[in-house]
Design goal:
The chain contains 16 helices and no strands. It is mostly helical. Helix 2 runs antiparallel to helix 12, helix 7 packs antiparallel against helix 15 (291-309) and helix 9 (192-198) crosses helix 10 (200-222). The radius of gyration is 20 Å and the shape is globular.
Length: 322
């Protein structure tokens, strides 16, 4: 009888924890339906370089109070070793940010949101390369079939878009989108070590700072660094909202989700983001998927679902840092 009160109180706390995890997860699903939509809209006012520099700068400023709070409570120091650890994943992150924005010149935001889900499979493949102990995953049929379906579906989603030319423009756009997806997969794997060493908040804070610093000279050389003073306050507000929600807030919420309900379920439900992006893109920008694209999207998402069912531990840990 003495144990009954403890059980009675423990169960509601557990239920609250799970509910908190699901709320955080579905918030990230909604938020990660939006990045390509924001970037597509901002391309009307911000060039590729300036858009990414200012979005990541705002995200860096937004995460700074959380980093300061964690540092104040002790823990790993942000020294030269930490800087080098975070510099390694920051480099493919810069390439990803630039190439994904350029890809939107060739494909709509809904199509890109679907195409980029193939990064789930590529992240697993890169994890197998970097972490040999996980290579037994290659022998599992779910991973083999999922990888094949995912890659075929990703090509189909891009290739069958209405009005696309099957020439050098289409191939160039596919290549750029593919580079963006590969770089995101590299980032997802390479961020594992700094996240494990520094923690999620510290590592993301330092990576966002380094990413902004790397984008600054590129913006000065190829973009227009004075864009914020040349556009309306509303456009700058949209940029700030996209940075705080899609970069900073999404990272924090996703971390809460994986802590409460686990990475496997969190990764699986992230496959709900591309359909949401497609619906919003159709409503806002008038983007419509052809029948062949819808079938290709279904193949891609099903392939990604199969692949992440057997994803290696290294991939799971890397996903916790996104």
């Amino acid at each position: 009888m003495k144990n009954l009160p403890a059980v009675t109180h423990a169960e509601p706390r557990s239920q609250r924890s799970i509910s908190r995890g699901y709320l955080a997860l579905f918030a990230t699903v909604i938020i990660w339906s939006l990045p390509s939509l924001f970037q597509f809209y901002l391309l009307r006012y911000y060039d590729v370089w300036a858009q990414n520099f200012y979005r990541y700068s705002v995200a860096c400023i937004a995460i700074a109070p959380f980093v300061a709070f964690r540092i104040g409570r002790g823990g790993p120091r942000l020294d030269l070793r930490a800087f080098i650890l975070c510099l390694i994943p920051a480099i493919p992150n810069v390439v990803h940010q630039i190439s994904q924005t350029v890809a939107l010149f060739y494909i709509g935001p809904g199509v890109y949101a679907i195409f980029t889900r193939s990064s789930v499979i590529m992240t697993a493949l890169f994890a197998l390369i970097f972490f040999p102990e996980e290579r037994h995953i290659l022998r599992q049929w779910q991973f083999q079939v999922g990888t094949l379906l995912g890659l075929l579906g990703s090509v189909g989603v891009f290739w069958f878009q209405p009005g696309a030319n099957a020439g050098h423009v289409a191939i160039r756009g596919l290549l750029i989108a593919f580079i963006a997806t590969i770089c995101w997969a590299f980032y997802a794997v390479l961020v594992k070590k700094p996240s494990a060493t520094l923690g999620s908040i510290r590592s993301f804070g330092l990576i966002s700072l380094i990413t902004s610093a790397l984008l600054f000279p590129l913006t000065c050389a190829f973009g227009n660094i004075t864009t914020p003073v040349q556009v309306s306050w509303f456009v700058n507000l949209i940029l700030a909202i996209s940075a705080v929600t899609c970069i900073t807030m999404a990272h924090v919420l996703y971390y809460v989700a994986i802590q409460e309900i686990g990475v496997a379920l969190a990764q699986t439900l992230q496959l709900l983001s591309p359909p949401g992006a497609s619906v919003l893109s159709s409503w806002i920008f008038g983007e419509h998927l052809s029948g062949a694209q819808i079938w290709s999207a279904a193949i891609l998402l099903f392939g990604a679902f199969l692949a992440i069912r057997v994803k290696p531990i290294a991939t799971t840990e890397a996903a916790e840092s996104l």
